[in-house]
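Design request, tokens follow.
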């Protein structure tokens, strides 16, 4: 179980993990691991960010364009059921499913002579050093004497070395006896018997890989091809031991009576490397050389080599993590959750990696829930909400790189399915940047605003950094997203509306009692369009875009014909073009409040809308809203924008204490990582806000945080950094801005 005392910089347990949700995560952006800390038969579950089922495909429905006018006519005539049925045939992707994420495998470390019980057990993730450490004491017979031996394991994922490193030590010479092997199975038997003392042959769990072979130099290589003729992957380990003896038998590395050992693990796929095996072998040799290896499976200076590798890892990690510090008297639980979100960002999204998907780089399922894709009707965007404000701009680079692939495919989808210019995406994408609709799910598949929302991350990054070169390089993404939405709009009386569209995943009720999803002019669409077109106009002013390349004039004209945000009969912000009742009043999505957060259209200056936004959230919560972790995280940010510190804090503590798993992963349920990032962003939003003309300090400070606190390093829009913000009794006592 988790240790009772809460330390702001440690996630600690006093027992091994009984299940995956109790294991502790490490990562370097590309390579992720979940360390169980099992004394007898350790398992580290592995992921590599580019291990995806299948390859690129063209799934655009060739019947879309010819049926689009009929779908629009049915919607305008109120024949919603017929419109929805036609959408399922004419707009669905062919085939229906995009590609999905897969695990890389497992590293198994089995310890010999495990007939004794263990004691003094400790397992923790140190957020300050990005290290998972497991230690315990076990009685062992050494040299004919029964004695207590303390064993320690340290696990890191080094970004500089692009390798996972497992360091094993004992406080008695010659006390390390183990064998190590890679495998690629579901791993369930290991969860069911986590404290097993018997040796288990992992060959039973190797059925999902092509081969596991021994190579010269004491190296194991596992090769596999993901399903659907997907990526070819390779994972390798090399064990360097000090003292004792070592041998490679078959595909298993055995260590006898060693004093110390280092396991180096590397992985690559054909997504990046033409020869993944060659790339893995080269990196294993490179890291081994860095470790000062003098001969196969032997090193006299292993302790120093590990220390060098470890310090390199810590220095790299802390160059990002240490940018932001937070202390609030008596709120260690909040501080830890805030910094855990930043830890996951650094561990899961670094330059050169793929962006964070629904589970980041921590997934053990071969058919994960929702494909562990990039869901872009909020979830992938939420993953990056804390990137800029908590001073981790580099960690957003993988998202920008994915958007570029989405744009390339989205141009084709825009043209072939909708007859529009620019680029677009629906509510999901995958490693290949697929932009055709995912699933045949009426409540989500046919939403067309995914590309527009993603494009806003370009503008947000510019606002926080004021990096003109970045904006100049990436503005075309914003412009092309805007071109699509302007082309896609159709006449509806005095307004221009998106049609067909929907309000993500929610269902309305028509006056005759019939339920509907497909609609025209959903409020969220109008809000995203407004945000994007205004951003494009501002960007072109900054870039001094010439008339021939400018869309500013057209964007300004379109903006005059986008329906304003309206208040409905319950005093709420309307979600649809009409003031419909909802089939599920406590729905997890609160899409009509995009303009409040992450948008910037509902502010204190718009008092009527400000109050209506409050009523909207209260109405959602009164009917059971916020029941998914990420939805609760969104509510925290919205209450922060509303200046409702007590309610923001109440929802934050509910998320931390009721909607997170034992290892502090967010629970949808099941595990979904977006709630971790949303909460981290929400905590920052409670302390500083810079989306309006004037920066607000402590805009949503709850009473529990008021006594004393200090935060350093948060970013503000306008290219500024809060060097120090300190408060006492709810009042700012020190403020330094760079």
């Amino acid at each position: 179980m988790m240790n009772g005392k809460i330390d702001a910089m440690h996630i600690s347990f006093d027992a091994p993990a009984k299940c995956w949700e109790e294991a502790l995560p490490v990562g370097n952006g590309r390579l992720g691991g979940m360390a169980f800390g099992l004394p007898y038969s350790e398992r580290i579950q592995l992921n590599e960010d580019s291990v995806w089922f299948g390859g690129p495909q063209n799934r655009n429905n060739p019947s879309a364009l010819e049926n689009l006018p009929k779908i629009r006519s049915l919607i305008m005539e109120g024949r919603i059921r017929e419109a929805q049925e036609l959408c399922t045939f004419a707009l669905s992707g062919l085939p229906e499913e995009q590609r999905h994420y897969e695990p890389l495998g497992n590293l198994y470390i089995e310890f010999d002579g495990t007939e004794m019980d263990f004691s003094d057990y400790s397992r923790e993730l140190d957020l300050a050093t990005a290290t998972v450490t497991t230690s315990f004491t076990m009685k062992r017979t050494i040299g004919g004497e029964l004695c207590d031996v303390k064993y320690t394991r340290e696990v890191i994922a080094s970004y500089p070395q692009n390798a996972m490193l497992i360091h094993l030590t004992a406080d008695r010479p010659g006390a390390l006896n183990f064998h190590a092997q890679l495998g690629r199975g579901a791993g369930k038997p290991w969860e069911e018997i986590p404290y097993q003392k018997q040796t288990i042959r992992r060959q039973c769990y190797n059925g999902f890989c092509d081969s596991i072979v021994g190579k010269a130099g004491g190296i194991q290589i596992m090769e596999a091809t993901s399903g659907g003729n997907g990526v070819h992957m390779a994972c390798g380990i090399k064990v360097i031991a000090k003292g004792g003896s070592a041998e490679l038998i078959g595909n298993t590395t055995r260590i006898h009576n060693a004093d110390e050992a280092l396991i180096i693990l590397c992985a690559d796929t054909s997504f990046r490397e033409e020869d993944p095996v060659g790339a893995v072998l080269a990196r294993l040799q490179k890291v081994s050389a860095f470790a000062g290896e003098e001969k196969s499976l032997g090193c006299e200076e292993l302790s120093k080599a590990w220390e060098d590798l470890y310090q390199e890892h810590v220095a790299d990690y802390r160059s990002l993590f240490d940018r932001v510090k937070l202390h609030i008297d008596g709120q260690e639980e909040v501080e830890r959750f805030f910094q855990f979100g930043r830890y996951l960002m650094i561990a899961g999204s670094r330059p050169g990696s793929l962006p964070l998907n629904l589970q980041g780089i921590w997934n053990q399922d071969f058919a994960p829930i929702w494909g562990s894709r990039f869901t872009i009707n909020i979830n992938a965007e939420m993953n990056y909400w804390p990137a800029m404000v908590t001073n981790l701009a580099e960690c957003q680079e993988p998202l920008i790189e994915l958007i570029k692939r989405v744009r390339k495919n989205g141009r084709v989808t825009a043209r072939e399915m909708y007859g529009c210019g620019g680029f677009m995406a629906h509510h999901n994408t995958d490693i290949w940047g697929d932009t055709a609709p995912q699933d045949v799910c009426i409540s989500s598949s046919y939403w067309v605003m995914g590309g527009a929302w993603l494009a806003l991350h370009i503008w947000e990054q510019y606002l926080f950094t004021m990096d003109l070169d970045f904006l100049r390089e990436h503005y075309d993404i914003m412009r092309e997203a805007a071109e699509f939405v302007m082309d896609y709009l159709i006449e509806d009386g005095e307004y221009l509306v998106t049609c067909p569209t929907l309000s993500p995943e929610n269902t309305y009720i028509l006056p005759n009692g019939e339920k509907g999803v497909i609609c025209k002019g959903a409020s969220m669409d109008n809000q995203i369009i407004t945000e994007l077109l205004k951003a494009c106009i501002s960007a072109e002013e900054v870039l001094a875009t010439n008339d021939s390349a400018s869309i500013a004039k057209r964007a300004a004209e379109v903006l005059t014909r986008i329906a304003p945000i309206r208040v409905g009969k319950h005093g709420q912000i309307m979600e649809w073009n009409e003031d419909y009742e909802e089939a599920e009043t406590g729905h997890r999505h609160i899409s009509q409040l995009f303009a409040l957060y992450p948008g910037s259209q509902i502010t204190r200056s718009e008092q009527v809308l400000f109050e209506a936004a409050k009523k909207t959230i209260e109405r959602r919560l009164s009917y059971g809203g916020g029941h998914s972790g990420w939805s609760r995280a969104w509510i925290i940010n919205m209450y922060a924008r509303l200046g409702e510190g007590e309610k923001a804090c109440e929802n934050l503590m509910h998320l931390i204490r009721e909607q997170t798993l034992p290892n502090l992963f967010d629970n949808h349920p099941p595990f979904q990582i977006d709630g971790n990032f949303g909460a981290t962003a929400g905590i920052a939003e409670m302390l500083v806000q810079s989306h309006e003309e004037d920066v607000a300090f402590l805009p949503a400070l709850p009473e529990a945080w008021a006594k004393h606190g200090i935060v350093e390093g948060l970013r503000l829009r306008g290219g500024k950094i809060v060097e120090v913000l300190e408060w006492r009794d709810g009042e700012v006592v020190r403020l330094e801005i760079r």
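Comment from the thread starter after seeing the answer: thanks! The radius of gyration is 27 Å.
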